[in-house]
Structures are given as structure tokens and as C-alpha cells.
Prior knowledge:
This protein is α/β, with parallel strands linked by helices. It has 3 domains: about 1-80 and about 275-305, Rossmann fold (3-Layer(aba) Sandwich); about 85-265, Rossmann fold; about 310-385, ACT domain (Alpha-Beta Plaits). It has 13 helices and 16 strands. The protein has helices at about 10-15, 65-70, 85-100, 100-110, 115-125, 145-155, 170-175, 185-190, 210-215, 235-245, 275-295, 330-340, 370-375, and strands at about 1-5, 20-25, 35, 50-55, 75, 135-140, 160-165, 180, 195-200, 220-225, 245-250, 265, 315-325, 345-350, 355-360, 380-385. It has a 7-stranded parallel sheet with strand order 8-7-6-9-10-11-12, sandwiched between helices. Strand 14 (about 345-350) and strand 15 form a beta hairpin.
Amino acid sequence: MFYYNCLNPISRVGLGHFDGNYIMTDNPKAADAFLVRSAKIQAEDLPESCLAIARAGAGVNNIPVDECAKRGIVVFNTPGANANGVKELVIAGLFLASRDILGGAEWVRAHRGVDDVAKLAEKQKKQFAGHEIAGKKLGIIGLGAIGQMVANAAVHLGMDVYGYDPYISVDAAWNLSASVHHVKEVDNLYRDCDYITIHVPLLDSTRGMIDHHAISIMKEGVIVLNFARDVLIDEDALVEALHSGKVARYVSDFANPTVAGLPHTLVLPHLGASTQESEDNCAVAAVKELRAYLENGNIRNSVNYPNCDMGRCEAASRVTICHLNIPGMIQKFSKAINDFGINISDMTNKSKGDYAYTVLDLNTPATEELLNAITENEAVLRARIVK
């Protein structure tokens, strides 16, 4: 039996993928696992019983990932589950930044009740004229789950699409339209594109990456879209560029005091993944990740431990171990198990940075005494008997 706690409202469609072996608890101190969306988690609030945290979304800035790793708590996210919702809003942003649709709609609203509004509109509509996106150059920084979908959609809309991503995965490359031009130097993308949209995670290397230099080499009147993280852009440089006209429009999904209400901006209240479909998809993915880990010790889409899949446990017992990534650990685990006269029928060991994860299938049921022998090693952060 496992107990889980929801730190935010989680889609019932997702929670419906738990079976009778899972019980929701309102007491965080009793939880084996947590489901979270945007709530800020403090490491000191996590109980000793916590085995895993699943973020129903991609970003994990609200979770103390490193501290969780040190405690053997596996943190999951759900990359790609909300990608279509964000993609659709990015495409909407392209249209809204190119055609003054909102300005035109507000003009009509302001003239409600005017008898000759249709005739007046014909005279005034030129002030809301815009540009078509077909044939324009779109630069996409980051070709992950969202970036590749934006790229493919833009190609179908007739745009000339350029993509920059030095770390593009094989899967992403296969899913990308052959019409997307691969850019090796991001400065070339800045120089050539009429529209630029950014879709990279927030890292030390990406914070403020669109800075004074980047903006200075962009085309005059460029349109910039940001549906990833507001701090990926140096907003002081952006504000200066908006005032000068270097950046014609800035579309952002992140309201903050710097850009909220600023002229030539369209700032949304973080609506990218705010669709019922995205919330359902993220919740379903998060629940499936938790179940795979809690029931069989398998890890998929963890941000602090390596992916590892041993399938359904068919052995007499399975032991999983979160530990430091240092030499000689497998030999020590094997010796501890051999001392109990138990045979290892199958095993795997994966590493990710400073941490590693080992799964051992045994031909004899594991005991608490065996688990204690394994955890006596100070490099072991957490070990548990899955079956």
C-alpha cells in the first residue's frame, strides 16, 4: 500500500490511473510520494517516508532537486506531455504579434452601439494592418518536445524555419521536418530571422542568453516570443530594444513587473499549458512514472537519477539502491548479498552525474537484515525492497 499527497490540484483523469493499492492522504508527513505542479517544495518539509516526487509538467525549479538526490528521493517530470498546448499558444502568439487582432477587437468593443460602426470601421481598419507570417523567417532556439512541434507547425504555415539546438536528441531529430534548416551558430539565427522564439530549459548557461549582444545583431523590427522562462531574456536589454523599435513586439507567457503593460508587448498569465488536455496528459504521465518506480523500481524521466527499466519484477525479490556514483559499489552490494547466501539472478546499474541507481533481482526473498547490510555503506542514500 502506498500513500500519496497532492501539493496542487491534480487532474482526476490522471489520479484515475492509480489503483486500489494507492491512497491519497492529506497529511504530507505520511506520504510515500508527492504529485506537484507549481507549489514550492522545501526540502525540510519532505518526510523520511518520501520516495519520489512527480512534477506534472516539465520545469522543476520549484523542487529542491539536488537535496532530493542526496536523500535518495527520485524526482520525475513529464517532458512533452503539455507540448501541444504550448505549441498552439506559440502559434497564436505569432499571429497576434503580426496582425493587430487585439487592437482591432478593442476598437470594435469601444464603438459598441454606434449605428454606423461598419462604415466607420472601413475607414479605421488601416490602423490595425499587419503582416502575414507565410514566407517569413522563424528562428527557434531549442528543438525539444515543444520546439520541434512549433517548427513543424510553422513549416506547414509556410514559414522558413531555422532551428538551433547543439544538444538535440536523436528522437527529436527524427521528428523534425526535413524543411527545418539546422543552424550551428545561434548568432546566425539572430541575424537572419524575422521572428525568434526560445524553448530551452532554465540553466546557468541559458539564463539571460538573449542579451544586449544578441538583440544588437537581430534584424530591425524583429518579433521575439518567449514561452519558456522569462529570465532567459535580459529584460533590461529587451526594454531598451522595445523603446528604440529594434524589437517591434515581445510576446511572453510570464507576467512580471518589468514587462506587464509595457508598450509593444503581449504578456499572458502563463497560459501555455493551461488546457484541460495538457493538465490531463501531465497528470497521467506523472502517475504512470510514480507507479513504475514504486511498484517495480523502474525510473523514467527523472531529473536527478538515471533512467532504468528492468520491467516487471518476476524474480522472488527485487532490491533497488540509490547511491553515490563511485567505483566499487557493485562489488560491495554483491558481497553483502552473497554473505546471506542469496543469488543475484539479474541486475542493472546506471549513473547520472554524481548519483547512481542499482536494481538487483534475487532468487530468494530479501529481508530487512539484508537491506540493513546494504545501507551500512555510507555511499548508499536509500535502499528498499520492491518485492
